[in-house]
Amino acid sequence: MNPATLLARAFHDDPYFQWAVPDAARRPRVLEAVFRGTLAHARATGGHLHEPGVGSVDWRAARAATMGWWQTLTSGLWQVALAAPPAVVSRLAAHEAEAMSFVTPHLGADTVYLCTLGVEPSLAGKGHGSRLLRRAFVEQATRWKQVVLRTEQPKNVPFYLRNGFSLVDERRTSVSGLEVWVFARDLSSSAVTTRPLPVAEPG
């Protein structure tokens, strides 16, 4: 299973994507297109870990956290428009822009943005998400001092808190009405080597 397909499965019931792509039958194809583009951008500007059939995590340098028209073109994210009607593309873009406006104040030159963490749904709750995070922290710590992420999934809030993150912002978007939680975590060697307790995995 390629990482875009795995992430589409992991995020099928995410509140953001349920709102943006209400047609559940169409959602897998749209999400695969979204994740193909965002993963390509992450590989070019940050990093990506993928365990086939298990999970995927990717990140971007702070300067590349948001994607403009050029990044949309070069990453292939424009192909979302081939998989989704204009209304869906508009909802995806509008929510993404507002949610990222909550994130960007917490990004600096020494910060990395953790874009996506997803685990194959049938393997959720078995520690794979925490393990992938620890692997990502080790790689990120060679270039950055802090990692920042956002989630619209309420069940992810205790997961990230238990994995060493601090909640730095919490707001509701005007465009979707969804709650957005923004987290930050130190990437110092002592923080990275801390082994968090096993907890339920994010979707």
Give a quick precis of the structure:
With 203 residues, this protein is α+β, with helices and mostly antiparallel strands. It contains nine helices and six strands.
Helix content: 40-55%
State the order of secondary-structure elements, H for helix, E for strand.
HHHEEHHHEHEHEEH
CATH homologous superfamily descriptor: Gcn5-related N-acetyltransferase (GNAT)
Topology, number of strands: 6
CATH class: Alpha Beta
Main β sheet profile: 6 strands, mixed
Task: Give the structural class.
Answer: alpha+beta
Whole-number tally of structural domains: 1
Strand order of the largest sheet: 1-2-3-4-6-5
What is the level-2 CATH architecture name? 3-Layer(aba) Sandwich
Which geometry do the CA atoms define? Answer: globular
Uncertain parts: 194-201
User: For the residues shown, what is the average pLDDT?
Assistant: 92
CATH topology name, in short, is Aminopeptidase
Calculate the terminal CA-CA distance, rounded to whole Å.
Answer: 17 Å
Q: Which radius of gyration do the C-alpha atoms yield?
A: 16 Å
What is the strand content? 15-25%
Number of helices: 9
